[in-house]
Write a structure and sequence with these properties.
Layout (H helix, E strand, L loop, with lengths): L1 H23 L11 H18 L1 H26 L3 H16 L6 H17 L5 H16 L1 H4 L3
Helix pairs in contact: 1-2, 1-3, 1-5, 1-6, 2-6, 3-4, 4-5
């Protein structure tokens, strides 16, 4: 069930990351001096583009590297006998894996660690509602492009 929590955390972290990136640096197609309404419109279009093309890559990459980081952290913690070593080694490996793509995924990896620690702290296993929400959120963000046509 730890893998389910990791999958939920990965989905939530990647969605939050892409929404933040889209609203901070929307693809404006070279336009300058945007009104607030145009900025929001470009940001929603950017979310759609990122969800289509980048979400699957980032989600799978973050999920796999997070499993690797956690397992290496657990291994080192059992070898040294210090439980705190697991958190530090796992966190450091998450950062290293986040830097591989020139730091582009670093924000997603940091959000993943924070989301997973929050889920772990709040509850042992994610509830059914959280599972449904986290796996449907990428599709809802993908469909948000339809709302962009009305603005």
């Amino acid at each position: 069930m730890a893998l389910l929590r990791k999958a939920v955390a990965t989905s939530l972290a990647a969605c939050i990351f892409f929404v933040l990136v889209s609203f901070i640096w929307p693809n404006t197609y070279g336009a300058e001096n945007l009104t607030f309404q145009k900025h929001i419109s470009y940001a929603i279009a950017s979310v759609h583009t990122l969800m289509v093309f980048a979400f699957p890559i980032v989600a799978v990459y973050c999920f796999i590297t997070s499993i690797i980081s956690d397992e290496i952290g657990k291994l080192i913690a059992t070898k040294t006998g210090k439980q705190k070593a697991e958190i530090f080694v796992s966190g450091a490996l998450h950062i290293v894996f986040g830097l591989i793509f020139y730091g582009a995924i670093l924000g997603a990896m940091i959000l993943l660690v924070m989301t997973e620690l929050l889920l772990k702290k709040r509850q042992k296993e994610p509830g059914k509602l959280l599972i449904i929400f986290s796996f449907s959120l990428p599709f809802m963000l993908y469909l948000s492009q339809g709302l962009n046509n009305y603005f």
